[in-house]
Fold these 4 entries.
Entry 1:
Amino acid sequence: METILSINNLDKRYGKVHAVKNISFEIKKGNVYGILGPNGSGKSTTLGIILNVVNKTSGSYSWFGGTTDTHEALKKVGAIIERPNFYPYMTAYQNLKLVCDIKGIKYTKIDEKLELVGLLDRKDSKFRTYSLGMKQRLAIASALLNDPEILILDEPTNGLDPQGIRQIRDIIKQIALLGTTILLASHLLDEVEKVCSHAVVLRKGEILYTGSVNGMTANEGFFELQADDNIALKAALAQHPSIEKIEENEDKLLVYLNNPLEGGTLNRYLFEKGICVNHMLLRKNSLEEQFIQLTAKKSSN
Ligand code: ADP
Ligand code: MG
């Protein structure tokens, strides 16, 4: 699969603040990537560096396999990293015409992109009459005018109402379906879970996870178990090869797996050891629980 962007040991300090710590990851064509992390984790800094508006401290990144310099490469990138900013007294169409003039793009693209973001019927309304969601959608249309290889969005749904959030997410999915690679930053787990195929989880400038969103959710899960004699239960479980670790939670044991294990198989195994369970439940972690676990693990180091 074609590499759109590769980031190698990128590091950024703002004076004493170590905002990005030696991060590396790759963006492949056709995927939707989410940089996920709480506020202050270095998402915007990372996007700023690859878009050449923030200076890196060390490390490197290369666009499109390093065949073009950053300036040329960025002509194939559409990005929205600030609040949408257009001329308030001009219409949406007039604003996009200006963008076309600056970038040397045919005006025929304007209607195509306005249609994609659902603003064609409002193209003659002045920008100042737009809701925040419409402004954000216009910014997306503007960023797409030159048919970029990749669209970059920083917190695309911040400040929007639920309907506005949904519209933006649907548009992002639509753009991805049309074949454009997407990289978005978000502090919202459910946003990344709903919109993205791949995630880079950041905390305090460090990468905690990179990989598919499915890979994050599809761990083997854990059993909740309880028996009359939880001590004997725990001793029997500790000998099972598919069991990674056991935690106690009030009167139940939480049993984490390192390999898939059927409830029936586990039940038979325990019965053969003379243990009857009163309670057995297989649970899968949601991405949210895993995200909290990932971030908790690192902070306890
Ligand atoms: P995020 O986008 O994930 O919220 P940022 O990249 O904006 O995170 O910020 C990462 C860290 O760098 C934070 O501690 C933030 O305060 C700091 N930071 C960001 N921009 C600047 C700046 N221009 N000067 C000093 N510190 C900054
Ligand atoms: Mg940010």
Entry 2:
Amino acid sequence: MIKPTIQDAINAQINAELWSAYLYLSMGMYFESQGLSGIANWFRIQFKEEQAHAEIFINYLIQRGGRVELKAIEAVPTTWESVSDAFAHTLAHEQKVTALINDLYALTEAEHDYATRGRLDWFISEQVEEEETAQSILDRLKLIEGDGSAMFMLNQEFAARVYNVPSPLAAKA
Ligand code: MG
């Protein structure tokens, strides 16, 4: 049986992952409205990945005999100034999520819950990738700035992004 403190923290993290999903879906919908369907596709895939993150925590809580409690999802922004603005927001958001995962990791150590700590290793690596990806896209956008044809190419490139089921969920399927 999982400790109530860990269960509460995982339920909070499920909510944070679903909020992230909602944020990226909102970004996707904004760029659909701007005629940038490739950029929108990139965020719509990010939305699915965040849903998968929530599901990984959900499955883990069930596996440990815990109780999943779904809380209200706070409203998300609905407009951004530019593609760069959305990716800057993405990077800042992922840095916050990294801090949340680190706090959860510290809690598992304080509570001597080494099973949960082990499960968080995948998320710690995932956050390194999330931050690196957002930073590298932001770097490219700085070079593109004001270049319509370069933005056209990026939009086409991002239209090709496909969803891959994250390994902890794929392994369960
Ligand atoms: Mg996530």
Entry 3:
Amino acid sequence: MTEQASFPRDFYWGVATSAYQVEGSTLADGAGPNIWHRFSRLPGMTVAGATGDIACDQYCRYQEDVDLMAELGIEAYRFSIAWARVMPKGRGRLNPKGISYYDRLVDALLAAGIAPFATLYHWDLPLGLEDKGGWLNDDTAKWFGDYADVMFRALSDRVGHWMTINEPAIVMEKGYVLGVYAPGHRNAAEAPVVARNLLRAHGHAVQAYRDRADGQIGIAVNIQPKFPATQSLADQAAAKRADAWRNLQFLDAILLGTVPDELPEMFGRDWCPITAEDMALIHQPIDFVGLNYYTRVVVGDDPALLPTRTRNIEPSAIRTLVGWEVYPNGLKESLLRITERYGRVPIFITECGAAFKDPAPLDGDDVMDPERVQFLRDHIEAARQAVEKGVDLKGFFVWSLVDNFEWNSGYTMPFGLVHIDFDTQRRTVKQSGRFFAETIRSNGGELVTTDSEIATQG
Ligand code: FCB
């Protein structure tokens, strides 16, 4: 036991997933299609044409996954709700069978002593709404509030922690500017409208929550510290633009009621200002910030790349399978920065994890994944250091419980603590799953090296 253990006693150690990435049975029991259903079927959009049609089959196997979590001692499960299961067209008619799935999931979690943390939107917009303009349509924000209210009515007696939207910056950038995620638009000029409507949607959901329930609600944002490639003024300005675009715009609006200056400058005539009325809706108190942390990014000035006029520099350092630099210190820096910029707001690390190429499981044995163990140990240690420096950190959720459908990468990026054989759906715990179980048992006090890990490292 180390002397410096400092995670609070009521800390939540959890794992995270999202509906489209794990559930499968996407159209079962009256569910409507969502934008990923269509996008993943377009030629060339996902590796090997993969879809989430079956994914991890959690819709049918949720009890098995809850049992697995219980076996590992996991204290909290962050899952997301598929909007189109609950409202097949995104608004109007409800689908009671879809709601009942989440009822059963939540009850199973509670019966196993696992706290449910629900995300309302993890990128799976009902197709019926995309066909009405999706996030470009101002009304989508209001419809999101209606859907959120349905879920609060159904589950807030048992779910005490809610997140409105997962990573709005990624929806905006990859979904509407780069077109590599659904709905696959490639139009930088759409970004300000999408960002504003995601923020308004968040505001409508928070408002509905306050009217209905008294638990905790927040948002999950992805923060990537941006470093200038050189100390030139041009690169420094580029890093500031990239930071405003990806890291600051959502939290500044929600927590400060402001817009970073770089954004209207970046967009010029395409900028869409947020009215005072909308800002009042967006800038309501929330109970916590959810931070998804994976990497940092080094950027340089590049006038040709709109809208930020920045270019990401390929890291030469250690990388995960996705290509992201392993940079644990960035987690600590991000936690400290949120605390400095917005005050001592409660923070959950709502995602942190890594894809590495794992060996195939051998019968009866855990999958050995020493790199993921190391990644987790270093990031948990970075989180601990942030706690020591005064950050009000409430929990740490590993992405992910199981290997799953990694968006346009299909099934090629395993992030799980548990391996899945996608032919048989067989689950096999990885060494990192055992490591995390030990971490939970000691409340992060001993960032233990397991015997099996010592054996693999030889
Ligand atoms: C995050 C997403 C999550 C998963 C991980 C690897 O950006 O929220 O769904 O794809 O990255």
Entry 4:
Amino acid sequence: MLKGKKIVLGITGSIAAYKACLVIRELVKRGAEVQVVITPAGKEFITPITLSTLTQKPVVSEFFSQRDGTWNSHVALGLWADAMLIAPCTASTLGKMANGVADNMLVTTYLSMKAPVFIAPAMDLDMYAHPSTARNIQRLKEYGNLFIEPASGFLASGLEGKGRMQEPEVIVDELDNFFEPKDLEGKDILITAGPTYEKIDPVRFIGNYSSGKMGFALAEECARRGAHVRLVSGPVSIKANHSNIERIDVESAQQMYDACLERFDKVDAAILCAAVADYRPEHSATEKIKRTADDMCLRLLPNKDIAAELGKRKTAGQTLVGFALETDHEKMHAIEKLKKKNLDFIVLNSLQNKGTCFMSDENQITILSAQGSTEYERKSKADGARDIVEHLVKTMYDKH
Ligand code: CTP
């Protein structure tokens, strides 16, 4: 949650300084306010004009402003910030920080900082491997600074090593995670996502357009808030990133049903986001079905309803959330499903909202429960996931 957060971004003299622009853009996109403090060497790599345009704030570099001689207060910056991020941080700045060598505005600000400090090192791989760098990093870790591991690259010797600054998005994700409320710490959450494939023969199936994006966004959001997530996913082409997510891949509705039932007893909540096929072919051929001149008839059998089954097994302490995708009489159908499946709340997704739902990155949802309904604005699936998890947390805490 970076919205409204005040970040002091320290930039030092590394070739990776150009990437600081991408870091700023990502921070600003997520709602943070950014104040740049740059070292004299940093200015050799990137101009303050570029940085101040991106942050909408003058860049701080010298102790005194050259224009009017006003004093730039490192103490005030230390009190203003919710976090300081130094990206890129060179070996030289690491050394100065570890030893209190306050000969520039950046290190002075660092020493006055009251907020947590994140450091994203960037240097030549041999410099990073040097014991002196390792010692400085060790010392800075002991002082409570948070390190963002550099990425891998190749040494001059051809061997693999580290030192390259981590990607801007990964850096900003780490800050984002840090500020996320950990209100699901210790909770276990089951999430279904994606479509199911119902086999006709070895090369054909009945499926649907679900991309799994909503379910995966929910899994990331629950994980960020501290939950252990069991993500049961149908065939999708996306990845789950957070280490708190345990992914269980399935193909058919029956496999998804089995995977969910096996785990439901152990979880505090389940979010059923998958677009489960309602029917499967009665027979799935072991060999590829050949074309003939005749009509072909495929007899379908109903699949089990995972949500309804979990609704039956739900204990008083467990929370169950479903999704509804409707084209007509949306609220009425959604409320029917809420009751029939014994859900705590249901997230309604209307197909009448063009450009949302399947394959899209955006969603417009309504949350319905016995307590009433809440309509949300159209937003990204990641932001939508936050609204849903917010509601989930409230429902879970109301039960206890
Ligand atoms: N669901 C499920 N297992 C199924 C079918 C649906 O767990 N076999 C879940 C979905 O993940 C969703 C909710 O039930 O959370 C509603 O899904 P939907 O397909 O809209 O409901 P159906 O009961 O299949 O109703 P219909 O297709 O007739 O609208």
